[in-house]
Amino acid sequence: MTVEQVATGGPGGGTVGRALAPLRQVRTLTATIYLLLSMFVGLTWHVILAVGLTVGVGTLIIWVGVFVLALTLLAWRGGAWLERRWVGAMLGVQIPDPYRPLPDGSLWRRARVLAGDPATWKDLAYLVVLFPLGLIWFVVTTTVWTLALGLLTAPLWYWIPADGAVALFEDGDRSILVLDTLPEAILAGVVGAALCVAAAWVVRGMAIAHGAVALALLGPSQNQLQARVEALQASRDRAVDSAEAERRRIERDLHDGAQQRLVALAMDLGMARAKLETDPAAATALVGEAHEEAKRALAELRDLARGIHPAVLADRGLDAAISALAARSPVPVGIDVATGRLPDPVESAAYFVVAEALTNAAKHAQAAEISVRIARHRDLLIVEVIDDGAGGADPARGTGLRGLADRVAAVDGHLTVTSPPGGPTVIRAELPCGS
Amino acid sequence: MRVVIAEDSVLLREGLARLLADGGVEVVAQVGDGPGLVAAVDAYRPDLAVVDVRMPPSHTDEGLRAALEVRERSPGTAILVLSQYVEERYATDLLAGGAQGVGYLLKDRVADVGEFLAAVHRVGDGGAAIDPEVVAQLLGRRRRADPLATLSPRELDVLSLMAEGRSNAAIADRLVVTEGAVEKHISSIFTKLGLPAAPSDHRRVLAVLTYLRA
User: Fold this and answer.
1) Residues in chain B within 8 Å Cβ distance of A303
2) What's the CA gap between A410 and A375, in Å, rounded?
3) DSSP assigned state of A255
4) What is the spatial distance between Cα B207 and Cα B204, in angstroms, rounded to a whole number?
């Protein structure tokens, strides 16, 4: 878009320059190609859909139809997917895929989500209207361009035939408009040039109209966009809140922990200094205490820093960081991490999901064994922590799980907690991790 | 013993140098980053390099990578890596080339001057010094049904101290038992875990660590 606007400011400038702009732009050519082809693409889909749907419905009784219908559905979703990219490339209208994410699990579950997704049916509607629309685009495009180019090149044709006359708009034997003098031919050329400009504008107008139809039927709906904006807003608010709470926690930990220990240490050293001359034995004992206090302060600071962001995660990634977590867990943990390095926020979210889940399992669930599974499934990182403990974990009550849900939402992920009384508890996070 | 120190915090670097000098160790060079360490080792051929893991420019595991490079270029130089955090994974990298003249300790251990100097001498003499926290991580990882469960609590203590790289005498000293008792525990551990008897201390460390990591 911006590129095109820059182009209109080129040589010629002003109103004339702007009027001529579509003629100079590649977009006019690609749009023309798109408009000419759309009828054939639409026709193809009409045939595929007509055959697929009638054969499918017709054979529904003998179950084959289910299979045929499913294939047809997949085919038109694929067609719509292609069409989005094709419209993006040729008309410059970028349309995001509006599909609901497909769940794991049985074919049946996935088929239900596919068929229940409004986007699937809007895809179908688009492919159905593509043919009639394409027909209009084809007729108008061919007409305006042949007329414009025909007239524009009239002066050339004038020289070629032996009798020096060009017949335009023949109606049977009778020619309605015949160019038989040179001035007439030149005049036709000028009119043709003007028509070329008009044709370019008409083509661009149709391209915009088609882009709007495609965006409406192939793109995410207003409701979807609205819902997404609201969900993002809410998760951002919670992320800000939880970051704030996190900062307060860190301040409190520093204040109650390391800072108090350093105060005690300074006090011990101060007293030792005072007693150095008068009571060397007491001074030695105090220095010893100060030494112990300093080591404890160091250990506390180290734990605190690890809680904020573990260095091993940044250096070596999830596998190493999760191994370290598991090694510190009082409950035996089985680990299966099948992924390489991922974007920092994703690794971080996955790490804290596991960290919090391990802490919960050990503290509240009295689990005897925990298993951690991390794997990449297409564009999603799936993190699962399963323990064999008492169950009954409720994200609505515990702040830990709630905070976790926010942390996951902040990277656009999704957290589910399944924890029936008596267990097992399954904490599962799905984190989008790009492609 | 001649030592090179690589540590970016000046405060800690000077402190370490003083501590080592007080302990009768000659500090031949002090540097503040990875490339500096490699150059200093090339120039001085010291017996030992004491290296901080986090150093400029990347502030990640710069020091560890420099240490591995030093190991390759100058096998005669022992390496003692100090870190704000100890993680089993770094230990694995460091020990990939063997446990001879390798140390990996939490920075806090410097505070126990006597213990620290002992570790410096042990590593400089070709021994090993593995932080108790790494050993605890390794032991903690294997609590499912495995042969470690057949060890007595005392044998587990001995195993941990072995994994840290201590000699029989040091283990006996720590547990307040005789060296003979330690030897008995060790042969019992090796039998229970199905490990072949190792002739030297550093081979023994490697055998134990390899077993714990597997």
Assistant:
1) none
2) 20
3) I
4) 5
- Residue A335 DSSP code: E
pTM of structure: 0.62
For residues A362 and A331, the answer to whether their CB atoms sit within 8 Å is: yes
Mutation for testing the A interface, residue in B89, B143, B209 having most A CBs under 10 Å:
B89
pLDDT of the residue at A108:
80
Smallest CA–CA separation between B89 and chain A, in Å? 6
Closest residue, chain B, to A304 (C-alpha) = B85
CA separation for the pair A335, A323 (Å, rounded): 7
Positive or negative torsion for Cα B56, B57, B58, B61: negative
Q: Is B88 on the interface with A (CB under 8 A)?
A: yes
The reply to whether residue A310 touches residue B85, judged by beta carbons under 8 angstroms, is yes
Q: Kindly give, in sequence order, each residue whose CB lies less than 8 Å from that of residue B4, ignoring residues fewer than 6 positions away.
A: B27, B28, B29, B30, B31, B37, B40, B41, B44, B46, B48, B49, B50
* Boundaries of every domain in chain B: 2-130, 135-213
Residue pLDDT tens, chain B, 214 long: 999 999 998 889 999 999 999 999 999 999 999 999 999 999 999 999 999 998 888 888 888 889 999 988 998 899 999 988 888 888 888 888 777 899 999 988 998 899 999 999 999 998 899 999 888 888 776 555 567 888 888 998 998 999 898 888 999 999 999 999 999 999 888 888 888 877 676 678 877 887 777 6
A→B contacts (Cβ < 8 Å), by residue, are 291, 294-295, 298-299, 302, 305-306, 310-312, 314-316, 320, 323-324, 326-329, 332, 334, 369
Nearest to A332 among B136, B138, B144 (CB): B144
Q: How far apart are CA A242 and CA A427, in angstroms?
A: 20
Contact A299 B108 (CB under 8 A): yes
B141 touches A at CB < 8 Å: yes
- In chain A, where the domains are located: 2-218, 242-307, 316-432
Judge: domain B135-213, CATH 1.10.10.10: yes
Q: In the CATH scheme, what is the code of domain B2-130?
A: 3.40.50.2300
At residue A177, the pLDDT reads: 64
Q: Is the ipTM of this complex over 0.90?
A: no
Structurally, at CATH architecture level, domain A316-432 sits in 2-Layer Sandwich (3.30)
CA–CA separation, B212 and B214 (whole Å): 6
Buried b (16+ CB within 10 A) or exposed e, A87-109: beebbbbebeebbeeeeeeeeee
Residue B85 contacts A, CB cutoff 8 Å:
yes
Using DSSP, state whether A433 is helix, strand or coil.
coil
